[in-house]
From TrEMBL:
GO terms for cellular component: ribosome. It comes from the Bacteria. Its EC number is 2.3.1.266. Acetylates the N-terminal alanine of ribosomal protein bS18. Residues 1-141 form the N-acetyltransferase domain. InterPro entries: AcTrfase_RimI/Ard1, Acyl_CoA_acyltransferase, GNAT_dom, RimI, YpeA/RimI_acetyltransf. Keywords: Acyltransferase, Cytoplasm, Ribonucleoprotein, Ribosomal protein, Transferase. Belongs to the acetyltransferase family. RimI subfamily. This is [Ribosomal protein bS18]-alanine N-acetyltransferase. PROSITE patterns: GNAT (PS51186). It catalyses: N-terminal L-alanyl-[ribosomal protein bS18] + acetyl-CoA = N-terminal N(alpha)-acetyl-L-alanyl-[ribosomal protein bS18] + CoA + H(+). It comes from Aromatoleum diolicum. It is found in: Cytoplasm.
Length: 141
């Protein structure tokens, strides 16, 4: 992911999520040196991800697939790319948080070897001012 990708990333983020990351969130991730990727099919951007690595742990901060590319295995391909990058950077574990209401993401993560290891209470903003828990998931690399 580069600064040139950000207009597309931010536009898709707004279309895909009720509480999207801002342009500033993505810029800060790039400035901080997080591993940030845009996946293309030929020249067309179809997905993106941001991953933070700390010592021997990788943390998935954001992964999103453009609506027109969903349900075709793109998320799994991008996840496997991130697993490879995390291994290359010396990580042995991969963590993420996911909304309990996000059935598609939960199914994807289970298919790719993640297991629930905890819960963060009131982690995500939710409609009508409420907060939604996050399921913390982990996978060995």
């Amino acid at each position: 992911m580069t600064d040139g990708d950000l207009p597309w990333v931010v536009e898709n983020e707004g279309e895909l999520h009720a509480f999207p990351w801002t342009h500033g969130n993505f810029t800060d991730s790039l400035t901080a040196g997080y591993s940030a990727w845009v996946m293309r099919r030929q020249e067309e951007r179809i997905a993106y991800a941001v991953m933070l690595t700390v010592i021997d742990e990788a943390h998935l901060l954001n992964i999103s697939v453009a609506r027109h590319a969903q349900r075709g295995g793109v998320g799994g391909v991008l996840l496997h790319h991130l697993f490879g990058e995390a291994l290359r950077l010396g990580c042995s574990q991969f963590f993420l948080e996911v909304r309990p209401s996000n059935d598609a993401a939960l199914a994807l993560y289970h298919r790719h070897g993640f297991a629930a290891v905890g819960r963060r209470k009131r982690y995500y903003p939710a409609p009508d001012g409420q907060r939604e828990d996050a399921i913390v998931m982990r996978r060995d690399l």
